[in-house]
Amino acid sequence: MLSDIEIAQSIPLLPITDVAAAAGLKTSDIELYGQYKAKVTFPVLRRLQEKAQTNPGKLILVTAVTPTPAGEGKSTVSIGLGDGLRKIGKNVVIALREPSLGPCFGVKGGACGGGYAQIVPMEDINLHFTGDIHAVSIATNLIASLIDNHIHQGNKLGIDSRTITWLRCVDLNDRALRHTVIGLGGKMEGVPREQQFCIAVASEVMAILCLSRSIAELKTRLDNIVIGNDFSGRFVRFSELGCTGAVAALLKDAMRPNLVQTLEGTPVFVHGGPFANIAHGCNSINATQCALALGDYVVTEAGFAADLGAEKFFDIKCRLAELNPNAVVIVATVRALKMHGGVAKANLERPDVAAVHRGFSNLSVHIENVCQFGVQPIVAINRFISDSAGEIAEIEQLCAKAGVKAVVCESWEHGGEGAVPLAEAVVELCSKESAKKNGVPSGFHVLYPNEMPLVQKIETIARRIYRAAHIEFSSAAQKKLAKYTEAGFGCLPVCIAKTQNSISHDKTLMGAPLGYTFPISDVRLYAGAGFVVALAGDIMTMPGLPAIPAASRIDIDDDGKISGLF
Prior knowledge:
Radius of gyration: 23 Å
Number of strands: 24
Number of helices: 19
Distance between the termini: 13 Å
Largest sheet: 12 strands, mixed
Structural class: alpha/beta
């Protein structure tokens, strides 16, 4: 059996100019990054943004059940669905996030789909791509160096170095950088202080990049970054250092969405890569707007399951960009449901309808979660060769009882052809949604209003989405939330950082946990991005590498051919 990278390397790619033409873009509308990658130009970006506001395509979000070591294949289904829609004659554009180097070298390997449902060139997309994430890292670290230089050069603003909240970053899993001390070595080496690093895709600059629609908005958001307090306790904003233009200049090219293709030549915008367990987990607004302007159907995804990615997609991205999703696809696998039903990974090959029934409780919560936002979901059963007919039938029957349709998807093995039934069901669902909207306001709505207090926003998400019985705030978190509210930030949405491996904060709680206490250990103000981050349990913003990292499998030969990348 061929690996994902071997499949990707075996299929000839179309010139990106041909892919652009199929999407309605001229060669002059894009800037080439080699033969198979391109960025849209700023004039075209503005033109597409205007069109997306007046005549957008139908927006389809792909989310999933709670991740397990057995795998769910959300990206594979997203890409396959796009190819499937194209197979049935629909004008479709896909919009996805950029992979982080952290997971590529850490746990999961590549992040471009799998089998015959992939985006390409997968080696480039997984490794450096067009440099967007590197630009985010450099911009973040420039801000950090400017802060420390200001203090070293006399500290005119009176910044209290003990209160600096701005983190340096690197796009790798490096636990040694979680807690560090900088400025050692003497008077000329800076002012000593403690410093933390986060992974680049969890940085505020990444969030700002993904939520900014223009250079002007980018600069405004950078200006609004709160870097710490002065000695009187006043919040100090980055604008006070007078260097916003320099940081924005580093992000100039990173602002523009990247155009690539699937193995079947479907156009794909891949842009922005915020993690969903510790950031807001969605590709850029710009990429989504480009796709909505060019496609009658747009397939996008949000990281991890509906409790994380989908909730943040709705409550943060859709709220800020005024997006109106038409349908949601929830990806599930027999294997994942069996794990949620108590089956060990070593025993997943054995048919076990009873375990599927028990594990359906997890899928049921995610169905309910999506419905709370007024959007109708459909379940995609990402089929594995070991799945039995009885197990598939059990999911279909349980979904029917829950009021949603379940459709088998075989895009991993058959590409777009394997996703045709799912594509047809999604088109039917979107048609029903369109009929409902004819003269009637859309049913989509966010979970909470802007004016709800920050504490209540966190409690609302924890109770309604995570099903927690109690919410416990640390004293530090309570004080910070009160201070944020007093300073005028109480109207911001909330981005909860927690484990992706459970609906709860505790990665060991599988299925659909109830009756537990949800602990908020800390909160952080992302004033530039426009949300407040609440850290639950022991979540960390800088991951570590496993005992056997994915990097140990990756190699390259004398011809430059890469192997082992998933």
